[in-house]
């Protein structure tokens, strides 16, 4: 693989690549690259003798070798070239790398640029700093082997693969001067999320957004086998990328000298192309979607590393994926090979007496915030501006008395979000997998459109390049865009069918981990929270049926660190407004808000809603009948539908048992249920007991899987008396109320639960119980005959008998 | 959109499309299509008067209209054409449709073919049957509006989008005579999993596998906006598909007559192409990857439906996605429009006096198992053959006494799986996202190769078209292939990094739902279980760091129905063998097995392992010191690393407190912890108490998040005394033992937990506690200095002091 070829796929006049760089440019570039490679190998292997100023001995080598060499030299190569371009063009550029296990490369780059020593003064640009730099890597108490929050200049965790393109496009949105260079690994390119991410160019406005320069890096191998993208004819490769709407330029080879000229020429061509696209769009408006340039870089895996080890080919194969020389500490041949590998970069030329990079290397790095490792977009909290917020109280649904009005909570929220969009036209977007309108947030489209740079046809509505509603039928892409947008210091709101939020479970994991670690790094500034609205939820997916019914995203999220996670279940429109306002102002959380879109009774006027949401949990006196403060039973509820069913059950019971003392407790902030020491929102035991008593039965109607309530409350005094109803995987295509009946969370089952658990109801109990059972039978019969719920169910509202 | 165009993208000589069908063929085809469309509209709207033999009145219309019209006529069109091809070519063909919300179409087809009435005799091919057919659709007590297990001929739930291609390819594997026609919706095509699925053609052996015929159906709109794939130039569209390695043929238009000729001609061409590819490969061997044909079908959304409603365009727009006429029950104009829409299909021509399809329609359907609705592959359990199993005991690691040997559990399993592969060369495959070898199952490659039809290069190892190891770096694709393979009656095994199993959370949901519903349908035969091996697990991801650490897949899975879900945590190699054997023989479950790949002490010889796994939970007498049967403390453990740490803690404590009565309980089958009434594997309270006592402290070291144990045991008598250690999101790049220390599940913390909870230890307790704390400090210091665990940790094995 010694040759070098350049396919200028379409722009015709290429200067002879061999002349593209001056000797001096070439020199600085190559030295920078060699230094980055040298330090990468050093980080993987060494814990001493970082400049090889003495012969390499076993004790200089780490006992456990943990890191990935294979992808790293290619990443360093690109980094070195981007630096040249940044300097010559004064570019505002970020670097997102999909193959983030190439962590040593990005750490080396940040150190060469001086950023690392600014952020971590102990890792100075001197010999001691170098000892620390190499030793800390993948070492207990040190830094991870992958790109991580600890890596300056990064917004993209290097563990799970597939999200680089979506992150890059998210970063570019509303940053018209920014160019995001995004390396896509050929392993990563096999993943679904990455494959979907290519289509992001249909949503990027060349006038008001920045640019993404994808660099598909074909080094040919995954952990143990070739990659698909490297083993298809180049014709197919280019055909695919052109089909995706890009103009691909191929740079392939292994000879560093000619590769430098060729890549530099190609990069210049691409950056000229980007500038031309943007100039045209910003001057003439957007006539049609531009073809953005991109690069295909084909280099050997483990480039410049050992060609063969133990008689087997390593460079250019999957054997260089992690540690090419497996045991230099015990195997003298490996040790010698490691030494000559390191010396092949000629470290004596690269570092001065003190261990600092020599001037040609220092001069090759950009300066200040132009350094990609110090670009403020990659530490987005530094750029974060608070949203200009409308007053959410202005959108309140008037509620003269509980239950008197009906509203669609998310539709009300839509009006509020519309005005958030209006006031924040450069740093707020809403994201949805084709569900914005289905989730009844359509008022947002009064203030903006959907982002759309693909073709339009007569009759199309609400599509424009600068639209602020990001809709693609890919939860992964939406989530990736939003993460990229947030991590670069902006704000967003993701609405999603509840069941399908699970599609991004694993992405949420990674974002939660990122936030947890970032919070521990003083130099990382707080960013806006990741806000989910889960709607079209389990209790109102009667029409789409079983496949659309799953409330388990909450369960997934609460496994994450308590300081990161918030879960809200506002029971009506005004509480939803209050919660949404709070979430949009918050920082560094993952906020999950669950709320329905269907017409439902409203309970709290805005003042009451604010009080209730501020407490997060509270007794609804107006619905309770335990004026004495000594209830026979606590009726707890969390979620809009469970709240309605609980109130309807109370209504029934009030009629049957006028002297039954019921206390209604509504939960908005789910984490209030957990103990103080487990979650910052957790109630003290005293506060919990004052709501739930220490010994009375609690009938808890919960939006999600019932076990979650037990999980959150198992240490509470009254836990043994808490009886939870929730979703238990019973569902199908039926009526809304029947969904509740199937899962036994409906008003009749809840009322029966009370009767079964309050002993003092006496002989009336048996009679009332039978009446409730008859109601259930009547319901089933009615629904089977008519296909809709009984009028008394459809029309139920809180009767207000108990005052308010 | 009245014109019709056919782009025969490359195969040159096309017969004039207008002549392709005889008049009689065209007639039968069009009648079949009209009948399917008529019945589809009928299902969405009607609950009476199904043949329109009297004027349509409001009470004939359902009160709640739930269904999707938009995609349905296109699906019916394709179905009608496939039927012609099946008949003329005697094809073994299945139909997988991505836009599965077009459920009414597939139900209509199954009814027209007679299958529906065979499976559901109440829905006969007569007037009464028709009343039932239309009424039951999306009606309480009826059938879902999407394609579901209830739909004969389907293996693909129509709720969540993105998995059709992977399912189709999974079905085609090892079925050389099968052709799977797979409709990909243009909404679905935006998802990541679907985008990744196109690459499946690099893994399909034209000699030993069947074929997939993708039909990309561009009807232009999602719920509320245009689709990306319909709004790019055709040049880009074809370029992408050719880049993916297909030969696309475009059929576009809206005039039924010419569309019939054109689609029929194109379909014949594609089926000829498939036959030619297979013939060549089977005769001459595989020289290079074939270009499989595929179809791009561009038709109006809601084709043949109302052109305009309430003055707005409906046909050909997103407004026809669900219910084009929103309120025929109350809006007389809608009612009239519905009636004329239905009559436009000329039902009087299509159904005989009794309501059965007229002979030309019946004759257009294939016969017997050639009907796609009755194809046995789509009810895979009917074709399922048990695996020919090697005796797992033959692979046992000899364990003379507990802790004496060390083994890598998954490597041992690899030998067993190798021989399962050897004995089952047509109906067993292993699946992994590029992790088969990393997970140490490489022995499998002694019996087979990786499946690979892309290019090869000198030096490649273990790649061949007929390999039985399916590796692509896409968890989604692996999962989709495996589901398709299982649902068509075969067996499989999926190994995955534990943390990244979350990537398929949502797919697991859908498969679990499918199994739950299938189990309730007597005509659906049981299929092989979906078997996961989660390895490279949280406690041994010290080298990859925090991003690779997440044990929450278990939490996700246990939310599914108890009758579907099994979770096993074998502590060593022999128990893993026993569990794996059990899982491979089981049916209709989702089995999650968690086991490590690193060298670890072995505890049970094969006889003991079998006994232990059969019980699923048990006291390890050889490790316990409560010979009296009256322990001071119960040391419970589940998972390989927690088991080792528990035994090491017991070892320590035994030394410090020779008279401390400890009982070691090991859990292999996690669901044993749950109550009998919650899970079929649940222990009775008596049995639980006999293991865990009613009043002694239980120190429980658990592989995953600690709350899961509380969730499973909160109703047990001794729950308040159960103290669980598990993963609490503390992790980074460090040493294996340090991972345990960070999460306080290590031997020293566990021993301290015992000391803190057993009051009778007296004054020695404080001293022992301090010594343990010193150990922890010593550990931290050692690790920071040396980068590896202390020798005493690395070398610990169970000392066997307590006999065995």
From TrEMBL, chains A, B:
EC numbers on record: 4.1.2.-
Q: Which EC class is the enzyme in?
A: lyase
Co-factor(s): thiamine diphosphate
* Sequence ranges assigned to domain Xylulose 5-phosphate/Fructose 6-phosphate phosphoketolase N-terminal in this UniProt record: 22-382
Q: Name one Pfam family in it.
A: XFP_N
Could you tell me which residue ranges the Xylulose 5-phosphate/Fructose 6-phosphate phosphoketolase C-terminal domain spans?
597-798
Per its UniProt record, what InterPro entries does this chain match?
Answer: Phosphoketolase, THDP-binding, Transketo_C/PFOR_II, Xul5P/Fru6P_PKetolase, Xul5P/Fru6P_PKetolase_C, Xul5P/Fru6P_PKetolase_CS, Xul5P/Fru6P_PKetolase_N, Xul5P/Fru6P_PKetolase_ThDP_BS
List the keywords (alphabetical): Lyase, Thiamine pyrophosphate
Q: Which family does it belong to?
A: Belongs to the XFP family.
NCBIfam families given in the database record: PRK05261.1-1 (NF003616), PRK05261.1-2 (NF003617), PRK05261.1-4 (NF003619), PRK05261.1-6 (NF003621)
Q: What name has this protein been given in UniProt?
A: Probable phosphoketolase
Organism annotation = Saccharopolyspora rosea
